[in-house]
Fold this protein.
Amino acid sequence: MVSTISGCYYSVMNHTLSVSTGHFLRRFARAPLAALALALSLTACAGGPTDNPATTDGSGTETSTGTPAETSAEARELLVLAAASLTESFTDLGRAFEAAHPGVSVSLSFDGSSTLVTQIQGGAPADVFASADQANMDKLVASGEAVAPITFAANSLVVAVPAANPAGVGALSDLADPNITTVVCAPEVPCGAAAQRVFAAASLTVSPASLEQNVKAVLTKVALGEADAGLVYATDAAAAGADVAVVALPDDPAVAAAARTTYPIVALQAAPQAELAQAFVDYILGPEGQAVLAGYGFLNPAPAAGSSPA
């Protein structure tokens, strides 16, 4: 009976937690309905003795006569919430982790780190959180939802422009021109906070045409030609390939330090799959995980000389 009930439980949970980029918050908002569906499913599963008939052996011990699928080890789902700039690298890492852990399904939800923190604090049943800055992770540490996160990567902003660069943007200073349509992330998002630091370090006043909720939204507007320029992470610009061109930031240590951000990761305190969550974190920190991240252009998380904390 336990095997059958557990199987029904996971079938409901897999439906509820089957997330994709940008859809998790809407699914989580329907949590009361999911809970009702779960309760009904459990009731149905617990129905009659024919659901999973059992017999007793000679000693009186109950034995299951369920199907092999019912008596085998249950599949496990790991829900990872990660900053949007980790989309490509964590997608590959999730597949590799699944390959190394048969029976494990890794569900990934990508968005701005501040949005993900709001979801976690709202009770999202997540196992792992990877942020694009320390400030948003600190919110979870302060609330007791995360303990001892570890920095696993670093990144840096660049100026992205449409492939043909129709506005002729050639330097960061061009973004101060009111005729240049510039988009950046909102200040509460790591890429937005970094953009504000960069403008301050370069003594520039820039009036963005829009403030986006994650770096992929900035990149999309630039790639589609809806903006003349945007500040995105170097890894995102690289992932966009020929859709965008890159304008380097000034060769100024203060600007370089301002543009840099670090990525902490943690197995959340309320993780439904606590042991598996820690295994995933360890994998990201290990040589295989670090090699994948380096392949996508992420930097060594060790602080750069003269840099300030992200």
